Each structure stands twice: as C-alpha cells, then as structure tokens.
Amino acid sequence: MEQKEQQPIPYFMIGILFVGAFISILNNTLLNIALPTIMEEFSITPSTGQWLITGYMLTSGVLIPVSAFLVTRFTNRKLFITAMTLFTVGTAVAIVAPSFWVLLTGRFLQAAGSAVMMPLLMNVMLMAFPIERRGTAMGFFGMVMIVAPAIGPTLSGWIVEHYTWRTLFTVVLPFAVLCLVFAFFKLKNFTPNRKVSLDVLSVILSSLGFGGILYGFSSAGDKGWSNFWVATTIIVGAISLVLFVIRQLKLKEPLLNLNVYRYNMFSLSSIIISVNSMAMFSGMILTPLYVQTVRGISPFDAGLLMLPGAVVMGLMSPITGKIFDKYGARLMAMIGLGIMVAATYMLSTLKIDTGYFYIMAVYTIRMFGMSMVMMPISTNGLNQLPRELNPHGAAINNTLQQVTGAIGTALLLTIMHNRTESNLTSFMQDAVASGAQMTEALQAKIGMEALLDAINHSFYISMWITVIALCLTVFIKRVRPNMEEHE
After folding, report:
1. pLDDT value at position 4?
2. Name one Pfam family in it (predicted).
3. Fewer beta carbons below 10 Å: N end or C end of the chain?
C-alpha cells in the first residue's frame, strides 16, 4: 500500500479532469440570466423555461448517487471519455436547437455528463495525493466547485448583452472538444476498478427519492407548498428515500454504501456541509434578487457585483488547502463561519438605497469566509474513510450538497414570498389608516418596501442557519494521516 501511495502524481491527467469539470459545472449557472431571451425566442412561459435550470439540476441529482457505482465499476479513462462525450454532444445540440424541447434535450445530455465529473475528479484526487497533501489538492478542487458556478452569471450577462444566447454554448464547445481529444490520447487508467453489480431497484428508489425532493423543493418557491405536485413529489421522494436507505443497509454491494456514517468525522462533516449549503446557495439567490429587483441594477452589473467574491474564492481555495494540511479544519471552519455569520447579518440590514460597492464588499467578505469552510470540512471527513469507501463518500457529499442547497433556497424563497405578502397587507392598511392617497407611485413604493423587508428577513434566517453550522464545528477533530492505516 505504501508503494502505491508514493507513485508519481499524474498532474497532466488531473489537469484534463479539472478543465472538464470546470466547464461542466460552469454550465450549471450559465443560462440563469439568459432565460428571458430564450423564453422570448421560443415563446414559452417562465415555468416552462425554468426547466432548463431545474432539469439540469434534477438530472445531476438523480445521477450523482449512481456515480459511486460507476467510479468503482469503470476505469477513470472510460468513464471520463463517456461523460465528456455526452456533455460535448449536448452542447452541440443546444447550439443548433430549432425548438425549446431540442434545447432541453441538449441540457439533459450536458447534465448527464456533468453529474459524473465532480465525483470522478474527487476520487482521482483522493487516490493521487497522499493524505498529508490532500488539503492542498482539495483546495484546487474547491476552486472548480465554487468558482465555476459563481462566474457563470457574470459571463452569461456579458455574452447575452453583446451576442445571442447560443453563444453561451458556442464558447464552451471548443473547450469540451479539446478536453475530449486530450483525454482520448493522453488519459490513462489511474484508479482501481472491480466488477460490481448494479441494483436496479436501488437506482429507481434513488431517482424517485432525490429527484422528487429536488423537484418539489425547487418548485415550492414558485408554486407554493400547497400545490398538489409540489406536495406529491416531496412525499413520494421522502418515502422512496426511506426505502432506499433501508435497501442499502441490507445489500452486500449497495449503490451508496452508508457504512461511511460509521466514521464520526465523516458524519459530522456531512451534517455541517448540509447545513452550510442551505445558507450558502440561498445567499447566492437572494443577493442578485435584491440588486436587480429592489435596486433596479441590470443583470450584467448584478453578475459583475458577484465576480470579486468568485475571484476571492478562487484565490483562497488553494491557500486554505495548504492551511488545512498544516493546522486541520476546525479553527479554519470556525473563523470562516464566523465571518459568514457577520457578513450575512450585514446583508440582513440592507436599505432601499444601499450602495453598490458596499453590497459588493459585504458579499465578497461572505465568500471569503465560505472559502475557509466547505473543502477543509469535506476533506477532513473523507480522510477518515478507507480507500474503497472514497467513491461513496464523495457521491454522498455531492448529493447532499445538491439536495440541501435546493431545500435551503426553496425554504428561504418561500419565507421571503410569505413575508412579502403579509407585509403588503400590513403596509397598505397602515397607509390607508394614515389617510394617504393610494396612487400608483405609492403602491409601487409600498411593494418595494415589502420586498426589501422580506429579503432582509430571509438573510436573517440564513444567518441563524450559519450559526448552527458554526456551533457544530466545535466538535470537529483533526483526522491524522496514520488514522487511515485501518484500511
């Protein structure tokens, strides 16, 4: 085992995987700002257009749990080339799409390829680097995971303002093709693989469980919790998930090996990642919502406001990885979450005329804090797992991040919506009671104040969710290199 750990690290191969993962994750948020243009071209409603985002997320959510089986069963070369081919074909289909449904098919193909990229890259990193250097390696991994979706809105805003929405895919295609060509000629098999059987019932239950919950919670903010399909998909998802867990515990070769939760630091890291994801992704939605809706700032400038935060995270990820290797995750996570709590509180006190650069600074500080949390905590938990459980640990973490991110976003958007409605009623009554004449200008002003208060309230709830994550970091213990010897 010692020999294996000291073989040369395949940096070029990891570089190919990095580029593939970066462009696939970038595509997750690339269409957000382009949606209105696409809806206009194809004459579709917002609820139909939203499937370009929701469908991508659903496909990823359904396929990520299967990634542990795929990573174990197939070589990294075969798996990456297949995933990259699907992604490239999907991108090409989207460029020439003559109708919305062809475009949606292209997005599904992209998502099917993308879903395997991150678990595959994470598993290769865990195998390639000795445990005492994993922090630095996973810091670069974190740069891909968070920076790519963070720069998506800025890049998308600029492209849509100057070119057509199809350019979003045209820009990505050459990189995807180059990545595929390099992979075909240069990628070698690095990770061990073995024949394992695929339990079809587990795949069905996993798809219904994660897919149902993701769809239900991501639709709740728009359709409301009382909507029949929202309630039904969440209930079906929850029941399927319970049956899925029961089945995994009984199988000899489970789709997702839940024995990873026998390791206390992995279990704790999973809980902290889940709680923090709820606050993290919701903040990424609430900030541009305030900037565009309340302040009336253009989509491109709204995306630009979030860019420094993405740059800071990109610069910090490798640095936090090196700090993790030296000092562990606990202190860094406590400092990072403390910064996030303070910055989120500041975002909960926004006013109707809060300055653009003030918002940019606070959002960037929040992202700086975030850069010190996710990867160190995740790596600390994964370090405790035996090598054969790495694919399962990576798949579980990625799945939880998707699901809890969607849940947190839906919950906070629902809280914001309900608060806005109650504020409108209350503020209107106060205006009538004061004898004010209900003009259109006054109604618009009241509507804006109601929304502002609701966004601030949602940020305040997000702050307390972050406080929960901060409290949990007290129990983190450093996983030392020699702790992996139990394998």
Report:
1. 44
2. MFS_1
3. N
